[in-house]
Structure formats: C-alpha cells, structure tokens
Amino acid sequence: MPLGTLDRTPPPFFKQGPSALSKLMVFSAVALFLMVADTRFKLAQPIRAGVATVLYPMQWLALRPVLAVRYTAGYFESLSTAQANEEQSRLKLAMQSQRANQVDELLLENRRLRELLALKERITVPATAAEVLYDAPDPYTRKIIIDKGLAQGIESGSPVIDESGVLGQVTRVLPLVSEVTLITDRDHAIPVLNSRTGARSVAYGDPKSDDGPLELRFMAGNADVQPGDMLTTSGVDGVYPPGVPVAKVVKVERRGNAGFARISCVPQARVEGGRYVMVLGSTARQLPPRPAPETPAPGAHKKGPAP
Prior knowledge:
By secondary structure, the chain is of the alpha+beta class. The protein has helices spanning 20-41, 45-121, and strands at residues 127-135, 143-146, 159-161, 166-173, 178-182, 189-194, 200-205, 214-220, 230-233, 245-253, 260-267, 276-280. It has 2 domains: 21-99, no CATH class; 127-285, Thrombin, subunit H. A hairpin with a 4-residue loop joins strand 4 (166-173) and strand 5 (178-182).
C-alpha cells in the first residue's frame, strides 16, 4: 500500500473536543451570566423554591435527632434550674417566716412590757423588773425561776405581778435567781376582794380542778357571788398592794346539803407562758407603825378593890 494513501487523522475513540481552557472560559461566562440574571431577574428563584420543597422532608427528618437532643438537654437544664429556684424560694420563705414570727413576738413583748409599765405606774410600792428563766422541775408544784436574786435586792415574800395581774409570790431567794410560787399552787393563798360587792375572801390554788385553777373557799352558800365577778387584792395582808387584779369567777355551785358554795376562778395573770414580770416591794413598809402602849402617869395609883 503506498504511504500516501494512509489517513493521518486520529480515530474517533481518541478524538479530542474543545480544549480545557475553552471549556473553563465558556462555563465561567455562563456562570457569570446566570449570577447576573438571577440577581436582576430572579431566574433561579422558581428552581430554588422547587428544590427546597423537594428537600424539605429530608431536612425535617435530618433535624429531628438534633432537635430531640437539644430539647432533652434544655429540659434537664430547665429542671435543674427550677429545682434550684424552688430550693432558694423555700429558704427565703423560711427566713421570711422566721423574721415574721420574730416581729410578731417582739410586738407582743413590747405590748406586754407597756402594759406592765402602765400597771407599775398605778402601784406606789417599789418594783424590780425580771425575766422568767424556766419553770421549776417539780411536777407537783407551780413555781417559776426568775433572773433576779439577793444581788438585786429581792426579798422573800415579795409579790410578783405581770401586765395582767398577780402572778405569785417569791418563796426562795438565791444570790442570782429567785423562786416564785404561782397563785395556782395548791399551797398558795391570797386575800381577795370582790370588786362588785366589796366582800372579802381568800383564793386558794387548785391546779387539779377542771373548772379553774383557783377556788374561793369557805364562802356561804347564799353568798352574793356570780360568774364574771372580778377579784382583786384586798391589801389586808400587808403583802400585796390593794386593787391589783387576781382572778375572775367562772363557776358557782350551790349545794343544798353543803354549808359552803364551790366557787371556781381563773387567774388574770399569765401563769403559763409569761416572760417578763415585776417583783414588788412589801407593802408592810408603808403601813403606819403600831402605836406605843399606854403607860400610866407617874402620880397615878391603882385603885384597890372596894371594901
């Protein structure tokens, strides 16, 4: 075969198209055109909307685990925050409740102290303020311990009052503390005066009675005593100043076969739960001295018996 007849063109399998540089320039120009056209005329907006619509279910499914993890983390974080806030709120509420109780207690103490001072102004005997420390440990007696003793000039037998009336009497004095026997003690008795009738009697402690811890004994069955009568100190004993409230009559039983009436009373003072008291001086110092006995004149002679 002559050499001139050979085809020197490459076979179709190895046939080359446009060069790579040409393709780059063409596609770059097309991309630039599309960007300008999309910016100007929004040509790709329908295509973008369609693709977004088609891909939305897959995006929704792909976001579910992420949202579940985020929701779970937020739930536990919110739960921890809520628990911490609840604990802080409880602490604040407890502190505010404690402060409110303290304020109420202080207001009550101030009111009682004012009433005690007002009662002191009506009493002319000297007085010493004291605070109740605790109740006596003996369960068979009604006694309290106060924080004043010999060092403060407290004397045995001194009456003790609070803002409402007579509380008791000092029965034992120590250097720094004193023991006060309450008027409800079974061994205590106090002379009283019925403010309505003016009748005098004696009130005895009766702690076992269900009607009242005080009892007026040895009162006649027809005595003029009614429930509601106010009993005050009579002052005849020289210990308690007159006119201090002691008790109020709550029940009167008149038995036909008994010569005396059973009269139950409740004390006006706070025999339980009191905190501040006033120890009074004895009223015996204010009593006039006894008159000196009469002595016969020096020149006087006794008369002999008649003959």
